[in-house]
Amino acid sequence: MPLNLFIKLFIFFTILCLSNSQYQYFQVQPHDISALIGSNITIPCVITSPHGDVQWTKDGLALGYDRQLAAFPSWSIIGDENCGEFNFFIESLKFEDEGIYACEVSPYNNAPALKQVANIKTLVRPEHVKIINNQSLSNETTIIRMRFDEKTHRINCRVDGARPAAHIKWINETGHEFSAISRTFIKDNLFSTMSTLTLIPSLLLHKKRFMCDVRHETLNNNMNLLRNGPVITRTQGYSISEALMPGSSAILICVIDGNPIDLNKVRWFKNNQELSFDQWEKRIEGNDASLIRKSINREDAGQYACEIDNQFGNSHATLPLIVQYAPEIDRSVPGRDKAATDSDRLLTAELHCYVSAIPKPTVIWMKDNQLLSSSSRYQSILNEQIPSSSFSSTLLFEAILYVYNVTKSDYGIYQCKVENKLGIDMIQIILTGLTIPDSPSQIHITNTSHSSVLISWTPGFDGGFQQTFQIRYRLSTDNYYVYENVPIHMESYDLKNLKLGSQYYISIRSNNSYHLSKWTDEIIISTSNYLPSLKFHLSEISSTNISFTLLILIAVIGLIILLINIILICFFIIKRRQFNMTSENSSTTGTNETETNTIDIFQPIPSNFFLTTTTTTATNTYKKYEDDDIKRPFVSSCSSTNLNNLDTRSSYASLKNNCISPYDNVLLHQYYPADIDNSLVTYRSFKDGISYTTDINDCIRTELV
Length: 705
What we know:
It is a single chain. The chain has 6 domains: 100 residues, Sandwich (Immunoglobulin-like); 95 residues, Immunoglobulin-like; 88 residues, Immunoglobulin-like, CATH 2.60.40.10; 108 residues, Immunoglobulins (Immunoglobulin-like, Sandwich), CATH 2.60.40.10; 86 residues, Immunoglobulins (Immunoglobulin-like, Sandwich), CATH 2.60.40; 94 residues, no CATH class. It is 11% helix and 38% strand. It is built from 5 helices and 47 strands. It starts with a helix and ends with a strand.
């Protein structure tokens, strides 16, 4: 029994001692991490419990004990704090995140402080590798050419956009490594490495293959993934730059280089459309892919292209093919075969002829089949029109004949004759005086809705003067027209405010300020029977939600302000009425301006003015009248007996005993009935400042002065 008790006591004290030691240590220590730029990383830090306070530092800067790290939005402390997890999380690693991080734990009871550091580095995969011949940065050279009279020949290999710097080795086909000189440059936190291989020209090097072997820790298994730069395909196209005669043969060649490369995957296009090979022959020889056609025609002209790609990129080349053809005069635009000029003012007439031809044509102008030579009366020019795109398989020209000082004898039929070695074309142009314009043509109706239509047309001959257009339309059920004048220089018009699901008749005419053309034939159109669906306007509604909210907010604020003003006005009106009622029942006196004699500065009024008293002494208590008191006339109540004995002068005012006068100056007219006791009243004249005392019974009359 004593032995068992001893053992139990020993175990108890052992546990007690161990529990008091409170030893703390890292279960998972922070460690160095290298990661690609833009990736998310976590630096581990797990501590046994219980433990002291934990915080992280970066390059010696304490970041605090808050797990959120509010000052650093891309950093945070993650993990279960109850389990001792204080892992440091970095979102989207950046260059400025590089540094030395430390997880620090303060002492706890008898346990010492803890600290463990981790070095964080950013990695950037190399962008590309280039082999540069003769220190040229051209990306086109892939074949190294050396002359035997050179003492040495240098070849450069360059790798850009890496972090840290990449390492370059030169090896041949057997794997033998050659010594080279490397240099490293840095720009915007990224490294470029240049390695220079020096060779002595020799026949032994002819057609030998050298490889630029790039090593970087971001590349798989630290093996070269970038060799023989550039590895993407490069394509150079060759075609005959001159225009070919119809019936001749044509060959289009694309020289392609790359690693790896499969010329059977070359794709051919004409004017951005994949080419059909019904009449073309495909051929592959070495690094050349070509198209051959034995007899070409006008339709074969166009912009050709070859395209190929591999896993590293895509390349293509364009090959223009131009074919000669005879002149073709453009007759598609109405009115180009007419011209008009006023002969009364000796003006200059212009006759235009638009032609397409390869090669460039010659132009001959004639009148009534008689050749017109350049003179003081006639001048001919030929302008080449620049195409809107970089390539065109046609050439466009504008031939202009100027006829100076036009008279009626110049009116008539002119011929524009254009020719080249492949053919001739001719058009007749009529020159007249100012005349009626032609009606518009090629009328199109588009964008028909429930309430509008868009009308477009092609103008006709303007009759020799600037023209505008007029539209008329009517409902099919009406007999009257509505007219719309189209603004100048416009060849389309949006006709609005039409009725839903209705049929309209529409026609157009031209006006050149001298004459009106005929109306075009009426076009029948029908507006839509349905209103636009709500879904087509959801974007507009959502875009105006903010505006509606703002308007509602402003309206509510305005109503609140208006309500407050109404309450304040009512309050002051009530206060004013209370004040006036108090003034009428009080003995306070005031001053006012008279109607005929305005006094700008009010003088004080004695407080006993018009009060019943037995003494003639006036006090010095005065009060100024308010504006409302001036406007409100004083009316007293007098007995009919006394009023019958008073004067009826209109300038009098009646004052009742013990009442206050609203007038500045009064002149009393006294009356003493014999059978009634009188009382005394004291008053003051504000003009002369003299006090008066007089007897009064019930009523007196005062004259306003």
